[in-house]
Write a structure and sequence with these properties.
The chain is an alpha+beta fold and about 160 residues long. It is elongated, with a radius of gyration of 18 Å.
Length: about 160
């Protein structure tokens, strides 16, 4: 996915390969010509639903609602390498934290809420993804992130 400003010409979207049908579908779906503020692609793996969000993180704002019938996690990495993890359970936000920076935690500490402790040997979001894989057997293969998934644009 490529970001584009309103004044940029559609020709700058190299992935289209000038497929007129693809351009028409993107216009009808609200993706073009005005760029959305974010694009969310969704899928499922091992009984979990997931969403991959590009450009602007909005998921954390809806984390409590997404967890109404269970639990939900959000993992965001900024362009500068900062990570923000969110966790909600049964409609309530439990914790939001930056791995390795406990003073930036909102809610319960990560070790109390989840049993997660960041030891600093790898990037915080990577360490948390490994934690989810070990603790919940939840693994999203890289191929899944590159697959064609249902997508929606939000303005």
């Amino acid at each position: 996915m490529l970001t584009r400003d309103e004044e940029d010409h559609i020709s700058e979207l190299e992935f289209l390969d000038w497929d007129e049908a693809a351009v028409a579908r993107l216009i009808e779906g609200g993706f073009l010509p005005v760029p959305p503020s974010t694009i969310v692609r969704a899928g499922a793996v091992a009984g979990w639903a997931y969403a991959l969000e590009e450009f602007h993180p909005h998921t954390a704002s809806y984390l409590a609602a997404l967890s109404r019938r269970g639990r939900a996690f959000s993992i965001h990495r900024s362009a500068k390498g900062f990570s923000r993890i969110g966790y909600a359970l049964h409609g309530e936000l439990v914790t939001s934290f930056e791995p390795g920076l406990p003073h930036l935690t909102h809610g319960a500490p990560a070790d109390e809420a989840l049993g997660f402790v960041h030891h600093g040997h790898e990037a915080g979001d990577v360490a948390f993804l490994r934690f989810l894989e070990d603790e919940l057997c939840l693994c999203l293969a890289w191929e899944e992130t590159e697959a064609e998934l249902l997508a929606v644009a939000f303005t």
